[in-house]
Amino acid sequence: MSRGKVRGFTLIEAVLIMAVVGSAFFGFGYLFGNLDQEALTADLSVLATKLAREKIEEVFQTKADGGAGGYALVVDEGSATVTSGAWSFSRTVDTTYVSPGDFSPSLIDTGYKKVEVVVSWGVDAGESVTLTSMVTDMVPSAVAGAGGFTPCP
Questions:
Q1: In degrees rounded to 5, what are phi and psi of residue 127?
Q2: Tell me, what DSSP letter sits at residue 38?
Q3: Is the model's pTM score more than 0.85?
Q4: How far apart are CA 110 and CA 103, in angstroms?
Q5: pLDDT for 52-75, tens place per residue?
Q6: What is the pLDDT of residues 78-95, one digit of tens each?
Q7: Of 117, 132, 140, 131, nearest to 70 (Cα)?
């Protein structure tokens, strides 16, 4: 049998093929491992946003239930632990007075408050969601005289 007609792979070729295929599998494993982590981060962001929205709605309900004095009931809240499913989050509420013209911070009560709700999780910086809204002590009758707000067209 002549040497030129022998078909197949040499040992060196087989080792090189295994090395290339092995590194490809390692790359795919790394890729899918990161996808799982990114999916978890997205899920936690959704849960944190839900908890922040819930708190914003609670702040506005407190104001509505308090009537004309409800504006004064919108205050800072320190860090509180809240849970959603098996996950724990830290939630804070920060209120600051702002000027009505440009919404810049104000040291005096201008009748406008910026309400900022921050929900965070984990130990890394940046693992948080922040929602900001405004409340005012304006009553509807003060907007358009004794008749209240002007009706929508």
A1: -90, 70
A2: H
A3: no
A4: 10
A5: 999 999 888 888 787 667 788 888
A6: 999 888 888 889 999 999
A7: 140
Torsion from C-alpha of 142, 148, 149, 153, nearest 10 degrees? -150
Specify whether the CB–CB gap between 135 and 59 falls below 8 A.
Answer: yes
Q: How far apart are CA 71 and CA 113, in angstroms?
A: 9
What are the φ/ψ torsions at residue 86 (nearest 5 degrees)? -95, 0
Query: How far is the C-alpha of 96 from the C-alpha of 112, rounded, in Å?
Result: 8
pLDDT of residue 87: 86
Q: Any idea which residue has 């005012």 for tokens? A: 136
Q: Nearest Cα to 118, choosing from 71, 59, 61, 53?
A: 53
Quickly tell me which residue has 């209120």 as its tokens.
Answer: 95
Task: Provide, rounded to the nearest whole percent, the portion of the chain with pLDDT above 70.
Answer: 82
Q: CA–CA separation, 141 vs 150, rounded Å?
A: 10
Residue pair 79/91 in contact by the 8 Å Cβ criterion: yes
Q: Alpha-carbon distance 131 to 77, whole Å?
A: 15
| Contact by Cβ (8 Å): 134, 56 | no
| pLDDT (0 to 100) of residue 153 | 43
